[in-house]
Amino acid sequence: MAGHISLRDPEFPDKFWTNPIGVHFALLEPEDMVLVNEDGEIIGGNTKRSVNAAGFLIHSAIHRARPDVIAACHCHSRFGKAWSAFGRPFEMLNGDAAMFYGEAQAVLASYGGVVFDENLSSPVATALGPKGRGLIMQNHGLLTVGQTVDEAAYLFTLMERCCEIQLLVEAATKEGLEKKCIDEETAKHTCETTSDPDSLYCEFQPDVENEIRFRKLQGYA
């Protein structure tokens, strides 16, 4: 119910498509998507279903603040929720984490409850900043953005894994193991050479192909 994804409309950039409330991502079809305007009114697509009110406020705030953002993903994933309790970014523990080096990773270090007011959604966009591609929302979950749905979705799965790895490493340090992070220069170089939008789009394609094959085998497509 609380997971949502948005896609800025290619013809009307002040409007965006989002998933209807209560439909599992694995069952979502193109005809299920809902088009909403800047006031949250459903103006196209599946007009028979409503959208998540908090989700609309979060995504609309991001799309207004970041004209470069075409798609955004938010979900209360298991490891993302766990790591968000610390209210701090994960460290550059490996090359994958380095895709979120510097301003690419941000933290919203507060939790004001369910986002039913613009006073709670505006801080989300502010925390993400002008260059952020991944946001850890304290005591809440994760949010990622991209120039394509594929980029945003890949970054979300990657960020979730980074949170999982960070939790595993933190647990291992309790046993006396020394943690070593990638140095700043290397992390910066890794980020610059591995995280352009086209590359991140391509990173997600095996997952897309796997999903299509699975749906065909199950008789869904």
Automatic annotation (TrEMBL):
Pfam family, one: Aldolase_II
Record's GO cellular component terms: cytoskeleton
Gene3D superfamilies associated with the record: Class II aldolase/adducin N-terminal domain
A GO term for molecular function: actin filament binding
InterPro entries hit by this protein: Aldolase-II_Adducin_sf (IPR051017), Aldolase_II/adducin_N (IPR001303), Aldolase_II/adducin_N_sf (IPR036409)
Organism: Cylindrodendrum hubeiense
SMART domains per UniProt: Aldolase_II
UniProt-recorded name of the protein: Class II aldolase/adducin N-terminal domain-containing protein
Record domain Class II aldolase/adducin N-terminal: where: 1-167
